[in-house]
From TrEMBL:
It is found in: Cytoplasm. Residues 200-370 form the Methyltransferase small domain. Residues 1-180 form the RlmG N-terminal domain. InterPro entries: DNA_methylase_N6_adenine_CS (IPR002052), RLMG (IPR017237), RlmG_N (IPR058679), RsmC/RlmG (IPR046977), SAM-dependent_MTases_sf (IPR029063), Small_mtfrase_dom (IPR007848). This is Ribosomal RNA large subunit methyltransferase G. Coiled coil: none annotated. Its main location: cytoplasm. Pfam families: MTS, RLMG_N. GO terms for cellular component: cytoplasm. The keyword Membrane does not apply. Its EC number is 2.1.1.174. The lineage of its organism: Bacteria, Pseudomonadati, Pseudomonadota, Gammaproteobacteria, Pseudomonadales. Specifically methylates the guanine in position 1835 (m2G1835) of 23S rRNA.
Length: 373
């Protein structure tokens, strides 16, 4: 297992979710570069440090014993990784964690930013920094060069101040933004779009997938959602803005819904959309590591449009894990309904877990599958 060795700490770090013989590590050269630079510049124990988008806690774990650290990000799995890595390395100085759906309380002397995949999230985070920077605050962003679009620097310049880029080290780069006094910016988030069927409007916070309109996989799934479910217990796994769970609830007025996502902004969007569309109808909406916390045999139906990436890493590991979680959470004869790209071959994977797998519908690009436990 690779060790993160910097002037601040020597750490044994793991990713979340864990998988056997994981070929990926929980930090990269951009983390190393950022920590090395910060140590060279100096960090006082009384300085308040805000760390944004620290994927698995590499930065916050390294700095926790040396300053007053707040970590903020949109990943529940990232939060779990931070907690586990603090414990794994015997670190008692735990940073404060603030979900990206909440604004961290300033003022901060140092802001360290890992550039996220979704630049809308970066924009919203930079907007929220307004009025939360101490005099002479240092704002430093980091990324691997292959994941550093020019637009990231443009956003730093727009909302913080002039930006200077470092030299590249191990294919990583730092961006230094010098804070300037600016008028309070107005956030363009959340965004909204309307659907015809069902006839509803959906709100979407900054880090949501397909924030400007319904993604084509969900569009293929919606006409085929099951009805006549009575009082069935239904979960929308990886709920995004809640559209599958909300549409299912509208078609099944007595069903009991649980909507889960690992993105805090997704959970925030889902909760606001549910209240706007379904009022006070009882529901469980929560951040989570999929259905890991769901009691075994407690669901009759799981709906899922599974992701095929975690941050910049593409693969079907998360989808396979969701399928396993769904099987465990379902009652005997319970059903998992999914939509997926044809080429991903989900029907083959589902047949390894479920008694029967049927194709419900298909388009040239997508298939809707029903797997019976």
């Amino acid at each position: 297992m690779p060790i993160l060795d910097t002037p601040f700490a020597r750490l044994d770090l793991i990713r979340q979710p864990e998988q056997p013989n994981d070929p990926l590590q929980a930090f990269d050269a951009a983390d190393e570069y950022l920590l090395t630079h910060l140590h060279e510049q100096g960090l006082a124990a009384d300085e308040r440090v805000l760390v944004l988008n620290d994927s698995f806690g590499a930065l916050a774990c390294s700095l926790a014993p040396h300053a007053r650290v707040t970590s903020s990000g949109d990943s529940h799995l990232g939060h779990l990784a931070l907690q586990k890595n603090l414990e794994r390395n015997g670190l008692s100085a735990a940073p404060l964690f603030v979900p990206a759906s909440t604004t961290p309380e300033g003022s901060f002397d140092v802001v360290l930013i890992r550039i996220p995949k979704t630049l809308a999230l970066l924009e919203e985070q930079l907007i929220r920094l307004h009025g939360r920077l101490a005099p002479n605050a240092r704002v430093i962003a980091a990324a691997m060069i292959k994941h550093l679009p020019r637009a990231a620097g443009d956003l730093l310049e727009q909302y913080i101040g002039p930006v200077q880029a470092s030299l590249a080290v191990k294919k990583a780069r730092l961006l230094f933004a010098k804070p300037e006094t600016r008028p309070a910016p107005r956030s363009p988030y959340p965004t909204r779009y309307r659907l015809d069927q069902p006839a509803i409007e959906l709100l979407n916070h900054a880090n949501l997938f397909c924030r400007e309109g319904l993604d084509i996989g969900t569009r293929a799934f919606l006409p085929h959602l099951p009805s006549g479910l009575g009082t069935a217990r239904v979960a929308d796994l990886g709920c995004g803005n809640g559209i599958l769970g909300i549409a299912c609830a509208l078609a099944n007025p007595e069903a009991h819904l649980t909507l889960v996502d690992e993105s805090y902004m997704a959970v925030q969007s889902t909760a606001e959309n549910w209240r706007a569309i379904l009022g006070e109808r009882p529901v469980e909406i929560r951040p989570g590591d999929g259905l890991a916390e769901q009691p075994a045999g407690s669901l009759d139906l799981v709906l899922c449009n599974p992701p095929f990436h975690q941050q910049q890493v593409v693969g079907d590991f998360l989808a396979w894990r969701m399928f396993q979680q769904a099987k465990r959470a379902l009652t005997p004869r319970g059903e998992l309904w999914i939509v997926g790209n044809r080429h991903l071959g989900y029907h083959v994977k589902l047949k390894r877990l479920f008694e029967r797998v049927e194709q419900v519908a298909a388009t040239p690009k997508f298939v809707v599958l029903r797997a019976i436990r």
